[in-house]
Amino acid sequence: MTTFHALTSTTNLHRCWLNARRNKGRYERIQRFGEDPLHYLAIIQQRLRDRAYTFGPYKTFTIREKKWRDVVDAPMKDRIVHWMLYDHLLPIWQPRFIHDTYGNLPGRGTHSAVHRLADFCRSPSATWALQLDISKYFYSVPHDRLKAQVLRYIGDHDLRTLLASLIDSFRTGNTYDDLFAPDSPYQLTPAKGMPIGNLSSQLFANIYLNDFDHWAKQTLGLKHYIRYVDDLAILGHDRDHLRHIGQQIVQRLADEGLTIHPKKVRLAPTAAGVPFLGYVVWPTHISAGAYLRRRYHHRLRQHEAGHQDRSEALQSYRAVLAFTGATHR
Questions:
Q1: Any residues with CB less than 8 A from the CB of 100 and at least 6 apart, and which?
Q2: Which of 207, 217, 251, 310 qualifies as a cystine partner to 303, CB 3.0-4.6 A?
Q3: CB-based contacts of 78, cutoff 8 Å, min separation 6
């Protein structure tokens, strides 16, 4: 039995369906699929094994988090295939990620990343913090380079073809062209982009930067380095050295087809607090960032005024706020 045949078995696809529907039972498409899942899974299986499966069509909508963000919504059939691919790729790649790669990985979520940065901030040699942000990361990744990375350890021909088809199924349009210079890697790369919202894209985002992470640790020799998807933080004792490191990182990422946001480069003393993933990390404690506090107070006012029941949202915010406080030396 080939790897592809095993992955597309009814048992495995049903398990992927259970993962895809988890905590999403209120959505109409989940309910519709759940009325006869074996029927829909049989269709997906047949298309996969006939080598006739196509991803999409996608729907795009905008959500407001800390900023407006375009999210791409994949159909239910794709979400099951995403889980199939994710579950196969994760054990291949997770052991190859450096310890300080975070984001969309088991045990390496927001709180783990913030805790790790707090550990760094307590180091006597970490008196300065350099932070960089990749501009429109998901929409900038070149397809040719991404396929080379994702397919690196995949030998099964059918699986390789399916993964390449997934990457090629989405292409960034011209929405963000005005944010980049005409000679930027973004403008010079026609086939690029991963749809934000896809489970597979979340894993691809870490796979694509895996070589960069190893370069940062091994070639640059960065001891206090952490990356959460497209947010980078490097701590050290020498401000000028960190500035030089930042220049090298900008060039290296440009070679990868990526652009550091010029207005999101921050070099400041660790003692001034390091804003990271909605929190502010200090050498002695972690506090909630301004956006997080503002959103909590907004929900609280809505709830107390009686206009909307915000009990569930407030409970979630309080769980997040409970993460703040003193850190131990």
A1: 116, 213, 217, 225, 226, 227
A2: 310
A3: 55, 56, 198
Entry field: residues in the chain: 329
Supply the DSSP string of 71-130, one letter for each residue.
EEEPPHHHHHHHHHHHHHHHHHHGGGS-TTEESSSTT-SHHHHHHHHHHHHTSTT--EEE
Sign of CA dihedral 66, 71, 76, 78: negative
Q: Quote the tokens at residue 56.
A: 């999409």
Neighbours of 71 (CB within 10 A): 14
Taking a C-beta distance cutoff of 8 angstroms, is the pair 189, 140 a contact? yes
The encoded tokens of residue 122 equal 């307590």
Query: pLDDT of 212-266, one tens digit each?
Result: 999 999 999 999 999 999 999 999 999 999 999 999 999 999 999 999 999 999 9
pLDDT in tens, 88-107: 999 999 999 999 999 989 99
